């Protein structure tokens, strides 16, 4: 029952208000326009944005590298390298004395090499004796 009462009260209240003609069409058009705008905004938000990254002063790196290389090359060319150059002096004024001294040095080197050759020949004799023993053992095993 209460609903019937409420309905009657509302009908009495709204009976005197006139609805302008075409209001429904205007409201419908506004709703359609807002829906279209919202759809367009949604599509714009879905599109991936391309952000262009711009380097600030990209040529500074190239200039810095070129300047560094120029400085290194300039320092390498113009800084003097200190070398201790030893001037060799003649040790003998007489050619015959120089020749005799050279012969002594060469004889000394030859004697050292002969010692090495003697040790090699001793080793070869030891190897020969071992080979002889190995041959004897092989003959015995057969």
What's this, in brief?
Helices cover 74% and strands 0% of the residues. It contains four helices and no strands.
Shape: elongated
Q: What's the main sheet like?
A: none
Poorly predicted parts: none
- Give a count of the beta strands, DSSP E runs of length 2 or more: 0
How are the elements arranged and paired?
Layout (H helix, E strand, L loop, with lengths): L1 H14 L7 H24 L12 H20 L16 H47 L1
Describe the structure.
With 142 residues, the protein is mostly helical. The chain has a domain at 96-142. It is built from four helices and no strands. It is elongated and about 150 Å long.
Structural descriptors:
elongated; single chain; 0% strand; mainly alpha; 142 residues; 74% helix
């Amino acid at each position: 029952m209460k609903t019937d009462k409420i309905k009657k009260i509302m009908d009495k209240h709204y009976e005197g208000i006139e609805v302008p003609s075409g209001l429904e069409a205007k409201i419908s058009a506004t709703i359609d326009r807002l829906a279209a705008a919202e759809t367009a905004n949604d599509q714009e938000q879905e599109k991936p944005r391309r952000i262009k990254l711009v380097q600030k002063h990209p040529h500074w790196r190239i200039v810095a590298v070129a300047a560094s290389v120029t400085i290194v090359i300039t320092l390498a060319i113009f800084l003097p390298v200190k070398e201790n150059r030893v001037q060799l002096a003649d040790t003998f004024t007489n050619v015959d004395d120089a020749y005799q001294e050279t012969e002594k040095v060469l004889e000394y080197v030859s004697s050292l090499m002969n010692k090495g050759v003697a040790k090699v020949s001793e080793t070869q004799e030891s190897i020969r004796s071992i080979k002889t023993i190995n041959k004897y053992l092989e003959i015995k095993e057969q």
